[in-house]
Specification:
The protein has eight helices and no strands. The longest helix has 30 residues. The mean pLDDT is about 90.
Length: about 210
């Protein structure tokens, strides 16, 4: 088994740590920042611990790093106040800052490829309609769980969670967030399956069940 840590893994690690450090410098507020970057703080040690025993494909590592960056930018500014999307809102006369839609789209796309990889490498499932369906189901479950966490935090902390919820007055925000996660999980599989399969074949000699 090849246990070498690749330049890609090292580069993504340092890039992620750099963005994490930046995001923690005078964020909008530290309570919101901690809530938003918590997935990064949980995933990073897990990825470091499994980098040799169960290395992921380069595609999945890059997507995870991108998703982490989206979360950390949202943590720094809050999702409703990311400057670029404020500019887009004002320039195109939009009703709200839509950065949170980007975050929830990524919440579907990235877990879709992670789930797809784990299922293909660690279960008897084969490529096909059932795999596609189950990956979408897992992503929707993740999205629903995240919405339940947001609800729990809001109930526990009251007004302190407003920036974390980022509903911006939209009563259908939760449903739209889940719809974007659903869309991300579908498009992620459709758009990246061929590249993902190519990279998975290259990892055959490093396979080890979790």
């Amino acid at each position: 088994m090849n246990t070498t840590v690749t330049p890609l893994q090292t580069g993504l690690l340092f890039a992620t740590l750099g963005v994490l450090a930046w995001s923690g410098i005078q964020p909008h507020d530290y309570f919101t920042w901690l809530l938003e970057v918590m997935p990064v703080l949980i995933a990073l040690p897990l990825l470091i611990a499994t980098r040799k025993a169960f290395p992921l494909t380069p595609l999945v590592y890059m997507l995870i790093a991108l998703h982490g960056a989206i979360l950390m930018v949202g943590g720094h500014y809050t999702y409703a106040e990311v400057p670029l999307f404020n500019w887009l809102r004002d320039t195109f006369d939009l009703a709200r800052n839509h950065y949170d839609r980007v975050g929830h789209f990524a919440q579907g796309l990235v877990p879709a490829l992670v789930t797809r990889e784990i299922l293909l490498r660690c279960t008897p499932l084969q490529r096909g309609k059932m795999l596609f369906f189950l990956v979408v189901c897992v992503c929707l479950a993740i999205s629903a769980t995240y919405e339940l966490i947001e609800w729990g935090v809001a109930e526990a902390s009251g007004s302190d969670a407003v920036a974390f919820l980022a509903t911006q007055g939209d009563i259908w925000d939760t449903q739209k967030d889940m719809a974007f996660a659903l869309l991300g999980s579908i498009l992620g599989q459709l758009g990246f399956a061929r590249l993902h399969d190519h990279q998975l074949r290259a990892l055959t000699d490093t396979y080890r069940p979790i």
